[in-house]
Amino acid sequence: MYPRFALEYLRRLLAYPKGKGDEHLSLYLEVADKDSLPDGWSRTAKLTIILIN
Asked: What pTM value is reported for the model?
């Protein structure tokens, strides 16, 4: 995983090929340094993922 700078916050796309305890792919978009953000912080994000098998 490589963090990508988007807007003004660092984000990570986390991939779990076998899910979290099952056999399904799980993907998560995570704010990298969320503990440094103020209480109540939020951001709307639009994410498009295309998977080709």
From this structure: 0.53
